[in-house]
Amino acid sequence: MAVNNNKWIATVASIWIQCTSGSLYTFSFYSPAIKASQGYDQSTLDIVSVFKDFGANSGVLSGLLYSAVASPSSTITFRGRSCGGPWIVLLTGAIQCFVGYFLMWLSVTGTIPRPPLPFMCLFMLLAAHGVTFLNTANVVTAVLNFPNHSGTIVGIMKGFLGLSGAILLQLYQTIFKDEPTPYILMLSLLPFLNTLIFMCNVKSFQTKEINETKHLNTLSLISLIIAAYLFSIIIIQQTLSLNLPTRIIISLVLLILLASPLYITLKSHSTQNYQSLNTNQEILEEHEHEHELENEHESESIKHDKNLLQAICTVNFWCLFLTTATGMGTGLATVNNLAQVGESLGYSSHETTTLASLWSIWNFVGRFGAGYVSDHVLYTKKWGRPVFIAITLGFMSIGHCVIAYGFPGALYVGFVLVGVFYGSQWSLMPTIASEVFGVSHFGTIFNTITISGPIGSYFISVRVIGYLYDREVGRGVTEYCSGTHCFRLSFVIMAFVTFMGSMVAMWLFFRTRGLYEKIVVKRESCSS
C-alpha cells in the first residue's frame, strides 16, 4: 500500500534523525580517546568540552537559516519552482557533523599530524554546532505541523534527542564494546547518512487531520516503551556481562521498536482512506468552514509574530532567558560535576557511572512528560504553560537540597529529581517561545534563549562550585575533599538560584494569562 508524504511521514523521519543526533551526550565515552591520543591533561580536555557546550547551545544561525529557506513565509525558487525546505537546514547540519567528527577521528588515529589545541576545539565546535541545525529543523517543522499540540510534539522530538545518546552507545557497543576510537568514526558517518536518507521527508504541512490527538498519544506510548526498554538494558548491562549473541538480539529488538512509529503513518493513511469513502457534502462544508477559520487565525497570528530583535525588547523574552539560565545552568553544572560529587560522598565509580548512564532516561522523562502534561492541562484546566516552568524549577530546587543534605542515597534521589526536571526545560521553553513570540522566527528566538544555559552553567560551575570546592580542599591536608561539606554550600546556592527562577516563571505566568486564554479559545473555535 503506497503512503503519500504527509505530516506523519515527516514526523517519523524527524524522529529517526533525532535518534542519531545525540552524539554530544556521549562525550564522556569518546573523550578518553581524544585525551590519550593528543596527550591532553584534564584541564586541556575541559577546554575542548567548553567548545562542545558552546557549539551545542549556539543555534542562532540554524534558526536564521530556517527562517530564510524553510519557514512558511520564505520564497526560495529555482526555475520557477519552490526548492526551499527544512532539508537545506538538515543538510547543512549533517555536513558540519561529518566534517567535525571525521577530522577528529583522523586526528585520534594519527592519520593526520596531531593538530594544535585550537584546531581540535574547532573540530569539536563544528560537530556540536551541526547538531543545532538538525534539532532546529526537526523541532520547528514539528511545531508547524501540530500547532494545537505543540507541547506534546516538542516533548517527543526533544525526548528522542535525549534518548539518542543511549541509542547510539547501545548500537555501537553491540559489536565494539568499550573501544572509543571507532565510535568517533561512527559519529561522523551514521548521523550524516541517516540525515541524507530521511531529510527530504521532513516538510511542514499546513493541514489538520482527524484523530491527531489519538495518533500523537499512540506515538507517545511508543516513545515511553522505547525509553523503558533502554532503561532496562542499561540496568542489566551495568550488573551483568552479556555475550555477543545476546547483545545482537537486544539491539535488533531496539531497532524494531525504533521502526514502530511507522505504524502511525499506516494507521493515519487507512483512516484518511476510510473517511474519503464516507464523505458527504455536509462534511465537506464543515471542513471548508474549519479551514477558513484556521486560515483566519493563522494570518492574524503571523501579523503579531515577532522577529529576534523585537522579541529581545520584551520583558517576556528576558523572563524566559533567566528561567532557562537557572534551570539549564544548574542542571548542566550538576551532571558535569557528578563524578566529583559522588567521590566526595563516598560513592564508587561504578555507582556514579550508572547514574550518568541513566541521565538520558531521566532527561527523556522530563522532556516528554512536561510537554505532554502541559498540553493536557492547558486545554483542560486553561493553565498557562509558564506555570510548569515554575513547578519544575521548584522541584529542581528540592533536588539540589536533597544532594546538599547528603543522607545515604541522597545522590540517587536528588540526581533523579534534577535530571527529570532539567529535561523538562528543554520542551517547555521552546514551546512557550513559539506561543509567546509566534512561529515565523521561532527557531532563531528559542536558540538565542538556549545560550543562557551554558552561561548559567559557567557561573555556577566555575564561580560557585569550583571556587567553594577549592576552598574546602585548602582547609584540609589532602588534594581531595571528602564529606558532605565539600559541595553542600554549592548545592544550597543552586537550590536558591532555581527557586528564584521559579519565581520569575510565576511572574511570566501572570503576564501571559491573557495570551493563553486566547490560545485555548482559538483551538476550541477550530475544533468546534
Automatic annotation (TrEMBL):
The keyword Nucleotidyltransferase does not apply. The chain crosses the membrane at residues 87-105, 117-140, 152-172, 184-204, 216-236, 248-266, 387-405, 411-433, 445-469, 489-510. It is a multi-pass membrane protein. InterPro entries: MFS_trans_sf, NFD4_C, Nodulin-like. Pfam families: NFD4_C, Nodulin-like. Residues 313-516 form the NFD4 C-terminal domain. Residues 7-265 form the Nodulin-like domain. Its main location: membrane. Keywords: Membrane, Transmembrane, Transmembrane helix. SUPFAM superfamilies: MFS general substrate transporter. GO terms for cellular component: membrane. It is found in: Membrane. PANTHER family: F25A4.25 PROTEIN, UNCHARACTERIZED NODULIN-LIKE PROTEIN. Belongs to the major facilitator superfamily. Phosphate:H(+) symporter (TC 2.A.1.9) family. This is Nodulin-like domain-containing protein.
